């Protein structure tokens, strides 16, 4: 199928034409404002790195399994029917001999590795970018929940008014000016993360759009091919893994994009979970102003319309099934 190869070309073009914008993204990631300020922040970042490393390992295992199963299918076909075993692609030499067949199989199978690694390597990169944004939102949410923490009202919360000689209640932001500094830092950090998410979506907009189309079409073709195979054959198992890998490409985008949206929606809730009533009315107004922005979800989108969420992934699967149903009905007629 040529569709994955065309898709890979568009991914390569994006990588080479968007280098300056990616460089700005990398500079932001290294910016101290997105760094770990506490041990909890560091734990979130380390946990994210571990998850991404594990995901990349699974992707490598999947590509290697596909390579060996496809190679095994050619070997078994040759052993079962020595005379009729053929190479599906054109090769400029005779494949009847064992040597010719082996060379032909190598030429047919070897591109699977670099094409598979290139595809999933790219997809894991985009997923890692989104996962980094999700981690930053988790850190922001945690900081908001605890920014107004205090030990409760005690005698230190009261001061003597020099004019009236009466005790006056003091809010925690009046006693600790560092709270306002921390809040401004959180607002600025959120602004940077919002720019980061929107920039990642803009950079990979075309490549993700083509990937969604590619997943729909190739998944349909793979399922159509599997419908005519034996369930206990090596080729069926190979095609099943291919189907999983095709679906995984779009699933990575949609899953981690969905996490970004989910975490951004919980930022406003984090304010209510905090002890925000312990700050002065003036500070509360500033918090409410910030919440009007935090209440809008950071939803990654492609083509400025389609959200990169699990809802979109379900739509892709539905489209693949509809295309498959059309092809089967056409075959029957």
TrEMBL record:
GO cellular component: a single term: plasma membrane
GO biological process, any: signal transduction
Transmembrane segments: 58-79, 99-122, 235-260, 304-324
Subcellular location: Cell membrane
Membrane topology: Multi-pass membrane protein
Superkingdom, natural source: Eukaryota
InterPro entries per record: 7tm6_olfct_rcpt
Record-level Gene Ontology MF annotations: odorant binding; olfactory receptor activity
Keywords: Cell membrane, Membrane, Olfaction, Receptor, Sensory transduction, Transducer, Transmembrane, Transmembrane helix
Name this polypeptide is given: Odorant receptor 48
């Amino acid at each position: 199928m040529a569709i994955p190869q065309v898709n890979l070309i568009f991914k390569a073009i994006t990588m080479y034409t968007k280098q300056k914008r990616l460089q700005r993204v990398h500079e932001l990631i290294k910016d101290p404002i997105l760094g770990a300020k506490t041990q909890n922040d560091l734990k979130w970042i380390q946990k994210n790195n571990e998850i991404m490393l594990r995901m990349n390992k699974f992707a490598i295992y999947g590509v290697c399994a596909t390579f060996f199963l496809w190679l095994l299918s050619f070997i078994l076909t040759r052993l079962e029917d020595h005379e009729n075993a053929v190479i599906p692609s054109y090769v400029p030499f005779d494949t009847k001999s064992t040597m010719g067949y082996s060379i032909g199989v190598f030429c047919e199978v070897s591109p699977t590795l670099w094409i598979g690694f290139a595809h999933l390597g790219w997809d894991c990169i985009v997923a890692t970018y989104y996962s980094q944004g999700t981690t930053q939102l988790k850190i922001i949410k945690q900081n908001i929940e605890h920014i107004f923490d205090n030990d409760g009202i005690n005698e230190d919360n009261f001061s003597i008014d020099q004019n009236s000689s009466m005790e006056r209640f003091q809010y925690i932001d009046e006693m600790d000016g560092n709270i306002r500094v921390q809040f401004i830092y959180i607002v600025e950090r959120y602004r940077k993360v919002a720019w980061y998410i929107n920039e990642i979506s803009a950079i990979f907009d075309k490549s993700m759009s083509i990937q969604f189309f590619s997943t729909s079409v190739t998944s349909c073709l793979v399922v159509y091919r599997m419908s005519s195979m034996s369930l206990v054959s090596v080729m069926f198992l190979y095609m099943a893994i291919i189907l999983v890998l095709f679906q995984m490409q779009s699933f990575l985008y949609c899953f981690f994009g969905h996490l970004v949206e989910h975490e951004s929606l919980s930022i406003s809730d984090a304010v209510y979970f905090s002890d925000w009533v312990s700050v002065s009315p003036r500070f509360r107004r500033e918090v409410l102003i910030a919440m009007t922005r935090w209440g809008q979800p950071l939803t990654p989108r492609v083509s400025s319309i389609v959200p990169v969420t699990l809802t979109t992934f379900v739509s892709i699967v539905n489209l693949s099934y509809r295309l498959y149903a059309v092809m089967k009905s056409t075959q029957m007629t």
